Amino acid sequence: MDTLLLARLQFATTTSIHFLFVVVTLGLVTLLVGMQTAWVLTGNPKWERQTRYWGQLYVINYVLGIATGIVMEFQFGLNWSGLSRYVGNVFGAPLAIETMVAFFLESTFLGMWIFGWHRLRKGVHLALLWGVAITAYASAFWIMVANSWLQNPVGYEVRDGVAHLTDFGALLTNPSLSMALGHVVSAALLVGGMLMAAVSAGHLIRRTPDFAFFRTSLRIGLVTAALAISMVQSFGFAQFDPVGSVQPTKFGGDGPESQALIAEWTTQFGPGDYTPPVLASVGLGFMILIGFTLGCIWLLLPLLFRDWIIRLRFPLWLILLALPLPFIAVILGWIAREVGRQPWVAYGLLPTEQAVSPVSAPLMLASLIGFSLLLGTLAVTNWMLLARHAMRGATDPALGRPPAAPSEPAHPEPAPI
């Protein structure tokens, strides 16, 4: 196996695992904002319980997700020095902003929210959670800005063999950005809604004594997932470019624009295969199939608003068994977007083979095994912790638990005379 293939496998593995953490984070924090806002506005304690229970799962996923993000960041310097050297002046700008947002603002807001229960006013505490959500979405935005530039380089010029940013506004108005960002955000809402609905369905199948609690969260999760799948489909199909103005060669395009571009690349970079691998189209096909399958969620909404249907269990089993589908679709969508760009790291600008670091194959293999084991361990740990805390129920979650009252001394000292 050569270094390039090993580097690509390593990047695919680590980014796929990290992306799963990201979509859960984005999806759950949006639902948490809605529930805690309802608690502050209505004063109904049931919304506090919902916030505490689902917030605990969110915190677990966030903490371990940060760890996977740190591991992933090492790859740009270790495995892709050619990318950093050639386009770092452009690609690095949105990444630097995202790092400041995610690792400083978002983490600070979240820490204050976690330890601010019963210490801060309700309005201030809610504002912190809104801050967490806003910075989470800002982080996703800047990541997509960077990724969209790789898909469609804009606002740059090459001087002395290095790309330099000349128009920052062009990054924000990249035609490859808006629909892709909407697609990612709606996919995250789908994942968060399905996760909430599936966990609630599991408790209702077990005939939990806290029926009302999980009936509420089941309905919230299903409504969110139903709305999100419609947005996922809309933003997804909107990215198909029949004219081929952004990436003419993607998904096997063989029109005149594609042929002209391939001829230009052959002149500039030499003969080669400039069409994406079949894997991109295969991933896209399965993702679309899963999307249409999850569209059937709409058929469950009228049924699950009646308690006697919920007690039949059959619809609940359907929801529980469907939980892996949005996660699989997320990975397939990422494969379709990234592999569809090949053989380029920056489309039409930097070939993938020129971006990889000059590292020996054995060393790259060791790095692949080490990173995969580390991220795999974090992923398994995350899901084990999520499952354990989810199945414990919502009787008294650790997050937001009132501080214990100081105990009375066993033998109080007599008052001084």
TrEMBL record:
Keyword Iron assigned: yes
The keyword Heme appears for this protein: yes
Keywords annotated in UniProt: Cell membrane, Electron transport, Heme, Iron, Membrane, Metal-binding, Transmembrane, Transmembrane helix, Transport
GO molecular function: electron transfer activity; heme binding; metal ion binding; oxidoreductase activity, acting on diphenols and related substances as donors, oxygen as acceptor
Cellular-component GO terms for this entry: cytochrome complex; plasma membrane
Family assignment from sequence similarity: Belongs to the cytochrome ubiquinol oxidase subunit 1 family.
Protein name according to UniProt: Cytochrome d ubiquinol oxidase subunit I
Protein's organism: Micromonospora violae
